[in-house]
Structures are given as structure tokens and as C-alpha cells.
Amino acid sequence: MSFGGTALSFLLLTALLLPTAHGGPLDAPVITLGEKKSLFGEKAQANEYVSYALYYWPDPANPEGPYKPIDGKKNQRLRSMDDSGKMAAFIGTVCSLGRQYELNRDPRAASRAGEWLRAWFIAPATRMQPHLKYAQIRPGHRTEGDGGGIIDLYRMPDFLDALAALKRSGALTKEEWKRVDAWLNQYYAWLATSRQGRHAHTRSNNHYLFYVAQCAHLAHFLGRDNEARQWLAEAFANMDRHIAPDGSQPEELKRAEPWQYSVYTLQAWGYLVQIAERMGDKNYRYRKTAAGASIQKAADYLLPFRTHPEAWPWKGSRAGTPLPAIFEPSRPDKEKQDRP
After folding, report:
1. Fewer CB near the last or first residue (10 Å), C or N of the chain?
2. A Gene Ontology CC term for this entry (predicted)?
3. pLDDT in tens, 34-63
């Protein structure tokens, strides 16, 4: 079990609150990564993203030794010293601005989004290096991340949707969009070839699913639909590792916050459903494995506890967090679970 995963509530709230703290996404100052100060021996350079594992704490029995994991107990002090808030502000603000432009074609939203994109992907002085090599470092264990930090960009599919909307605007010039695409290509290549990416690819919990979701969406965005289909096929082939025949998610039920992590991981499946349906596979969510598991079953397993949270049988947090919107029963295209 990994304790380095970023909690849904933490990153989502950070993404939502940081821009509004300065008056909304149109007014939020552009924040970049900047210079690095090594706190635990990491050798990150300027504009390399650094974050620390959220559930790691000093060991009282060995205060100077490696930090130890305490699942469910967030070390906000560590997070206050890293770049995760800056990343959340960037992703959350661009997603908000992209949505604003998509809804009402507001040129101010496009222009402001362009300023963020130039700062993070284009300007030599502030451009983020296209990797997450130093994401979710476990103090005292390694001076690099082990791949668990790739989940820090779990909202990449939403971000790419925002970029798709903004590409229809005057946010950037054609040449600038080429440089954004080049950054995304470099990051996608890093996911596939780096030690951290290879490690995330072998995991059996939400880290694997968010890794595959990122890869599938990046491949589609970059015009590599055959690769996107391969990622979707791989996720389905591995579904029995993640979803039981009754729809429960055993790896997430082991966590200190089983409801939050079940919903969080369902979001990764939702991202995969989204890209599958976008590419014409309307049956992806209903397709069953030989054992009887399906993505829709995972959603249906959780839905009754939304109306009866007291019936949630697992220790830890009570059922409460809404399911991803794509699984809401009010969706007009939702079909029966037993569709073949």
C-alpha cells in the first residue's frame, strides 16, 4: 500500500481556493515555481517541481531518521514548504479560465490563461521542467520521488480540456501553441521512459489508474489516438486488480479514508470513460471483465451510500463526498449496468 498519494480533498480544495483568494481566476497573480531550496537533500534546480509525500512524519523513535507513513494523517507543514500549492493554483486557474472562455467566449479569460501558459510552458526564466522527478519525496528515504508524485497532476485531463477550448481563442499565437504542445510531448515521453513513470505503471491502486488516465488523455490531445486506445485497453485488461465483481475497490477500502479514496479512484476511471466515449466507445464503462467487474459497477456500488451514508460499513470517513459528475444517475445517456 502507498501512503504517498495526494488526497482528493487537499488538492481539490487547494485548486479551488488559491485562485479565489486573490479575487478569482481573472485577477489571481501568476505564480511560478522559481528557485529551489533543498530541504531533504534533493538536488532540484530552478523551475523543477518539488513536493513532499503528504502522509509522512518524523519518527519519534528516530527523529533524525527517515520519515514514517501515517495513512490518513496529512502533514500540512511539509506541503506548505513545497510546490504543490503553486501547481494546484496553475492547474485550477487555467481550468477555470478555459471553462469561462468555453461558456461565454470571454477574451479576458483567454488572455489571462495565455499569461499563465507562457509563464509555465514557454518563458525561459520561469518554464517548468517537463517532469515530476522530485514529486512526493519521502524525507529520509530518497532525494527523488519514486513515481507516486505523478498523481500530483491527476487533473491533467481537465487541464487538457481547458487547453482544447483555449486553442480556439487568442490566448496564444500558433507558434506559442507549438511550444506548449512540445512541452506536453516531452512530459508524455518522460511518463513513458523515466524510472518514476515505469514505477507508477506497475502500481495496483489509484496511482496506476491516474497514470494511465494522464497517458490516455495526453495521447489523444497530441493526436496519437492509437496510443490512447492502447492505454484504454490496458486499463480494462487490469480492471480486476482494481474493481471486485461486486463493484467495490479493495485497494481503496484498505485506506484510512476508504470513502474518499474510493470516490477519488473512481475519478480516474471517469477520466478513462470520458476519453473512451470521446473516441466513440460508448460501452467502455459497462464492459465487464470475465470476473464480472465493470466501471459502472464501481459507481453503482457507491451510489446507495450517498443517500444512506450511515450504512457505509467501512471504518474511517463516512460517505459524503459526491461521485464524479460523469457517474451521476441523472445523466441522460446513463444505461443499465447489465449492458453487455
Report:
1. C
2. periplasmic space
3. 988 888 889 899 999 999 999 999 999 999
Alpha carbons within 13 A on the beta-carbon side of 48: 17
Q: What is the pLDDT of residue 330?
A: 67
Whether pLDDT at 10 is above 50: no
Residues 6+ away with beta carbon under 8 Å from 56:
3, 4, 67, 68, 69, 70, 75, 78, 138, 139
Is the same domain home to 196 and 213?
Answer: no
| Number of domains composing the chain | 2
Instruction: Please check whether residues 20 and 84 belong to one and the same domain.
Output: yes
CA nearest neighbour of 179 among 114, 106, 111: 114
Q: Is 125 helix (H, G, I), strand (E, B) or coil?
A: coil
Give 243's strand partners: none
- The conformational region for residue 208 under phi > 0 = left, psi -120 to 50 = alpha, else beta, is alpha
On whether both 235 and 140 belong to a single domain, the answer is no
CATH number at residue 176: 1.50.10.100
- Domain's final residue, options 154, 175, 202: 202
Helix 225-237 × helix 258-278 angle, to 10°: 140
Over residues 239-274, the pLDDT tens digits come to 999 999 999 999 999 999 999 999 999 999 999 999
- The answer on 134 and 269 residing in a single domain is no
The three-state secondary structure class of 57 is strand
Same domain, 303 and 243: yes
What's the pLDDT tens digit per position in 216-229?
999 999 999 999 99
pTM (global) more than 0.70: yes
How is 239-295 classified by DSSP, letter by letter? Answer: GGGT--TTS--HHHHTSSSHHHHHHHHHHHHHHHHHHHHHTT-TTTTTPPPTTS--H
